[in-house]
Amino acid sequence: PDRCPQICDEYAAKDSRIKVVHKKNGGLVSARLAGFKEARGEYIMHLDSDDYLLPGAVSTLYDTAKNGDYDVVKSRPLRENSKGKIWQESYRVNDGEITDNEAYTIAMLQNSISPYLHSSIYRKEVFDVFVFEKVLYGDVSIGEDWVTNMLISPKIRRAKILDESVYVYFWNEQSMMATTIISPLLNERLDKVLDC
Questions:
Q1: CB burial string 50-81: b at 16+ within 10 A, e below
Q2: CB within 8 A of 85, min separation 6: which ones?
Q3: Is residue 93 a contact partner of residue 112, using CB atoms and an 8 Å limit?
Q4: For residue 193, what pLDDT is reported?
């Protein structure tokens, strides 16, 4: 209703780097799978609906990945609520380097780094169609970012965590995710459980 498909086509007509995929709504993971199948670059990024990138986001992540030969570069996401308040997420590791897949897996399990696919850049080869299909056909709709990161973790040789924000995640305080599933205290609760 907001002419989104036409607007996308107009941008694609102006810039050959833009490829538009028209598909029936099948949810977030279905969209990621469709995008992955069309992606031709060495690196890929995920941008969720209602979120936005800050100026220089792509070049910051890409240059860091290329110059450091990283499989993944994660930035610290910002959250924005419906009143326009913005705050930066914090994890045990907000800046640093991970030098093997076991350490990446442990960091994910311990909630030491951002679990999201957004606000990051990934070497395309760490994914394959089956990663997305496994999440899609496993009907994982909550925590799919974390599950996907766990599925690719055996392929992560080097990762960089940037103490910098390039991505703003819209936080709907009235959503089921915010009020019942992932309250703002989730990280504290996970930390207590995992540190026992």
A1: ebebeeebeebbbebbeeeebbbbbbbbbbbe
A2: none
A3: yes
A4: 42
pLDDT band at 60 (very low <50, low <70, confident <90, very high): very high
- CA 65/CA 48 separation, integer angstroms: 21
How far is Cα 139 from Cα 29, in angstroms, rounded to an integer?
Answer: 9
Helices (H), 42-179: 57-68, 101-109, 129-137, 144-152, 176
C-alpha–C-alpha distance, residues 132 and 140, integer Å: 10
The helix or strand, by DSSP H or E, that contains position 13, with its residue range, turns out to be helix 4-14
Tell me the two tokens of residue 137. 């056909």
Tokens of 24: 């029936």
Distance, CA of 79 to CA of 65 (rounded, Å): 24
Question: In a 3-state reduction of DSSP, which class is residue 94?
Answer: coil
Q: Which residues pair with 88 in a beta bridge?
A: 78
CB 144 within 8 A of CB 28: yes
pLDDT at 191 over 90: no
Instruction: Give the model's pLDDT for residue 175.
Output: 56
Per-residue pLDDT at 43 exceeds 60: yes
What digits encode the pLDDT tens for the residues 112-137?
Answer: 999 999 999 999 999 999 999 998 88
**pTM to 2 decimal places:** 0.85
The two structure tokens encoding residue 99? 């030098």
